[in-house]
Amino acid sequence: MKALSSILALICLLTPTIHAEEAASPTAGLRIIENIRYSETAGEKGFGDLYLPAEPKNARPLLLIHGGAWKKMDRFRMNRVAEFLAAQGYAVFNVSYRLIPQADYPACEQDCITAGNFLLEASHPDMAQLDRSKLVVIGASAGGHLALMTGLKLPPDRVAGIIDISGPTDLTSPEIRNLMIGSGMFKGQPSEQYEASLRAASPVTIAADKAPADLPPLLVLQSENDKIVEAIQARKIADLWKQKARPLQEYFWPGREGMTHDIWRSSANGPFLREELEAQIRTFLETYFPKS
To answer: Is 66 helix (H, G, I), strand (E, B) or coil?
Structure first.
């Protein structure tokens, strides 16, 4: 019986919880409501965790999107980023989304837009206390791309800013072709259709067609030595904002050899961003999305 009890206890530990519940806070004063379902369509990926600051009433909301080449990882990779943002006084909805090949693009984009609307509409009771007049969308790597696409496709008057960390911006560019092939996005499409699909999924395409007033403030964070998403990708989206005379904050750093994006303080699962990147994010939020 003792052995059976141990096995049952282990099974309980390994079985994922699929209902919203409050978790112990890793940082004093923060609350985390886990496993909030924001989308039935997205199935097991349609969940997010809400990080609430010590003073949640009228806190301003952020939508946080993980990376992973659109085909791997989940929201838990961004736990420390969510903690950092909530410690600044913001409410953070850290979400998962459908991945390739289980669901091809634009499923992941649609999920992120759904999550953004879910947050804006306070579709969970703990969101009702927030100042939801606008939100900021933030993501890293493929999440940076999705942050751009989400921020550009949500109603313009509800988006206070976009934070793009090492995100692809022009999916048709030769320097990013290996990433796109490796991701499996639009796999099997005929050549002409494939190129058209990549263009349609590129933030530069969406932004170029926007009126200047519909482009929110943008923060671009990019390593000059990134071998996955080369710095020219960040410059393309930044140049569009400059051409349209829109608010832009950009930060490029040399980057270390062999570190790909080089945005993390360590290689641990769920790591903190580099301190200088946190400082850039803090400045951007204080400038364009100050706490109520």
So the answer is: coil
